[in-house]
Automatic annotation (TrEMBL):
SUPFAM superfamilies: Galactose-binding domain-like. Coiled coil: none annotated. Residues 23-212 form the PITH domain. Residues 1-29 are annotated as: Disordered. InterPro entries: Galactose-bd-like_sf, PITH1-like, PITH_dom, PITH_dom_sf. Gene3D superfamilies: PITH domain. This is PITH domain-containing protein. PROSITE patterns: PITH. Residues 1-22 have a biased composition (Basic and acidic residues). It comes from Wickerhamomyces mucosus.
Length: 232
């Protein structure tokens, strides 16, 4: 997909991290993957080199997460936006990323939006949360399919109170570590962890209820019948 936007690159950081009392995050596990609840047919991206119908491959299974056969890359510069809808309501606990380790291709600031359908590169909407991604990842000159280094997967914990009843998650990869806007981002795996709570609401079902019989009505009918019979 070719990028047709001409947006202003503003690299001012608007961090919203809810440090609170520095309570350690609650650990997650593989069973909390939300992969099966992503609506892959509706996943869309902006300034992404791959066609929309191929983006689903970035959400790799646990068995394939080390594979480098597919990667998500930005198209024209160092920014990309990924819209991830779900088939129901979910609580999101964390975002796990495996990126490129080169400063030109590694994302640094990632703005996260909940249930926002109108995010583009000119949006001034405040993100629900901001992720600072470290300069850690796979290097282009050292790619090894046999490398099972779990430390190259970085888990970013989200404030759980802010990501309940989520039906869509938008990730805005805002810049890279080199601040070179002409370089492209390279992402090898994205995993979302959390909890599925309920399916999306469907059209209301209209039910016709038959009125219950009223004993008084029954007595009135019998009285009327008896009156008619006595008058014959």
């Amino acid at each position: 997909m070719s990028c047709q936007h001409e947006h202003e690159h503003s690299h001012g950081h608007d961090h919203d991290h809810d440090h609170g009392d520095h309570v350690p995050p609650i650990p997650t596990n593989e069973s909390q993957s939300l992969r099966q609840y992503i609506d892959f047919s509706k996943v869309r991206g902006l300034n992404i080199a791959q066609p929309n119908e191929e983006i689903y491959q970035i959400f790799k299974s646990q068995e394939d997460k080390f594979s480098l056969k597919f990667k998500l890359t930005s198209d024209a510069d160092s920014q990309l936006i990924l819209n991830i809808p779900f088939i129901g309501f979910v609580k999101i606990f964390s975002v796990i990323l495996r990126t490129n380790g080169n400063e030109d291709h590694c994302p640094r600031t990632i703005k996260v939006f909940k249930n926002a359908n109108d995010i583009d590169f000119d949006s001034d909407k405040k993100p629900t949360f901001v992720i600072n991604h470290p300069l850690i990842g796979v290097n282009d000159d050292e790619i090894d399919e046999e490398d099972k280094n779990e430390n190259l997967f970085i888990e970013h914990y989200l404030p759980r109170s802010k990501f309940q009843s989520t039906t869509q998650l938008t990730l805005f990869f805002h810049d890279n570590w080199s601040d070179d806007e002409d370089e492209i981002l390279k992402i090898y795996d994205i995993e979302l962890r959390g909890q599925f709570t309920s399916p999306l609401s469907k059209d209301p079902i209209v039910t016709v209820y038959e009125s219950a019989a009223n004993p008084t009505d029954h007595k009135n009918i019998l009285a009327q019948e008896n009156k008619n019979q006595s008058s014959i």
